Amino acid sequence: MRDALVATPRVTLAHLPTPLEALPRLGAALGVELYVKRDDCTGLATGGNKARKLEFLLADALAQGADTLVTKGGLQSNHVRQTAAAAARFGLGCHLVLADVVPDTDPDYAETGNLFLDRLLGATCHLAAADQREAVEAEVLAALRAEGRAPYAIPYGGSNVLGALGYVAAAVELSEQLASRGLQPDVLLHASGSSGTQAGLVVGCAGLGLEARVLGIDVNHDPGWLRGQVLELTRATATHLGVPDPSARVEVLEGYAGPGYGVPTPAMRAAVERVARAEGLLLDPVYTGKAFAALVDLVERGELAQGSTVIFVHTGGAPGLFAYRSSFR
Ligand SMILES: *Cc1c(COP(=O)(O)O)cnc(C)c1O
User: Fold this and answer.
1) Which CATH class is domain 50-158?
2) Which active-site residues does the annotation give?
3) Which backbone phi and psi does 191 adopt, to 5 degrees?
4) How many Cα atoms are found within 13 Å in the side-chain-facing hemisphere of 313?
């Protein structure tokens, strides 16, 4: 697996390895050995998990002679912000197709946070209705080609086989950190949205013989869709690397998204505040706050046994806090 991974072209965008840190106060309060894998610290325009995926996606874009990146997401997408930064780092143009997919948001939602950073990073933002994003993206791609540009389209969340390889590489990195510290985790837990992070971690852990469960917390309020996406991408990524299909290990947990993607929940608020105040660590309102709320619930219900070793994969997203200011009053 490592040879096939190393053979896939990759650029450098992220600050790696990201730290693996203990959360001793929260761990003691919950009764588990708790660690955080700091992928919020990947360094690309405030960091986050997409930087790892973009290392493989950018290499492919450059190999194809692309001069412009095109991608899509919600107004507060962390993926589009990191894509805009990656484009700037490689001197490429960047067009983003953005939709307001979250009802009843803060007045800050369409001004600050990630959207502010997208514009600061020089990306051209095209606002679209949620059900028009594919159509608007097709128009943007056609207009760029008509101008003689060479656009490269990146899927939602950077989640295809190339993007997932970023998280296979993350599993390799984490396994080395675990080995050097003599840690054998029972569980890796993370927010799962567009499937690439989870598929990569599942393939990586299986390929390395790491037995930890990989628990992906659905943040979309659409767990059936997500499970299907993760299974499909897990199989395709395993095929690319020539390793056995580990999709039997895919576990998508539901019930923590609240009424929908990006909609604040009381448990999310409580988790964001608790982690900030106990450990000085910033989570985000859309992904990691809901995933940490799931971790707390699973421990409190005994689904994660007392004394187990749990690694929370912090996938980033803190710029979104500013867009949700009124949720924390
Ligand atoms: C995109 C994102 C995720 C989900 O990762 P996927 O690979 O899309 O499932 C989790 N957390 C944050 C902060 C993200 O931006």
Assistant:
1) alpha beta
2) 77
3) -75, 135
4) 25
pLDDT in tens, 48-58: 999 999 999 99
pTM of the model: 0.98
71 lines ligand 1 (CB under 6 A): no
**Architecture, CATH, for domain 2-49+160-328:** 3-Layer(aba) Sandwich (3.40)
Ligand 1 pocket residue status of 191, Cβ below 6 Å: yes
pLDDT tens sequence across 155-187: 999 999 999 999 999 999 999 999 999 999 999
Provide the residue count of the chain. 329
The preferred substitution site among 52, 161, 194 for testing ligand 1, maximizing ligand atoms within 8 Å of CB, is 194
Q: Assess whether the C-beta atom of 192 lies below 6 angstroms from ligand 1.
A: yes
CB atoms near residue 169 (< 10 Å): 23
Atom of ligand 1 nearest to the CA of 40: 13
Give the number of the atom of ligand 1 that is nearest the alpha carbon of residue 196: 7
**What residue ranges do the domains of the chain occupy?**
2-49+160-328, 50-158
Q: Do domains 2-49+160-328 and 50-158 have the same CATH topology?
A: yes
Neighbours of 247 (CB within 10 A): 18
- 146 CA distance to ligand 1 centroid (A)? 33
